[in-house]
Amino acid sequence: MSAEEKINRILEEELGNLGFEFIKVKFSQRGKRKILQIYIDHPDRNVSISDCVGVSKSLGLVLDNLEEVSGPYNLEVSSPGIKRPLVKHEHFVRFQGEKAKVQFIDEKGDKLSLVGEIVESDESSVVLDLKEGNIRIKFNAIIQANLHKQSIVIGKRKKHKKKHGRR
After folding, report:
1. pTM for this one?
2. Ramachandran angles phi, psi of 4, nearest 5°
């Protein structure tokens, strides 16, 4: 078992014990500092900031004792957000009827990115409804998948008219 697989297994187990769903972990580096970004969800409600703080404290104790996470690191715990990653078969089933953006490698070896409604999913693939028809994408070909919300408006900017004259 690789270090990443072991960390995923431990995180899934620990988060399950805390009542949360493990979405994914992302490993990165900023300068000499390792970053572990962990995405969590809750089955019955939105994830709050206090949830993230509590989970961070609990997971920090577990991760500090793992040799796979040696040396200094920053632990960032957050909710999946509006562009929620779709990582597991269960995610595609839960969000059936929603739009998703899926990046994958097709049969020719080309990297494609498609946006479509999730029609169905089984253990090995997901079906997206595109304007041209349905397409089945195997999970082992998916590079990245996220919910795709087109009509999200965070805030509107007001246009300021330039005033002419003296100040």
Report:
1. 0.71
2. -65, -40
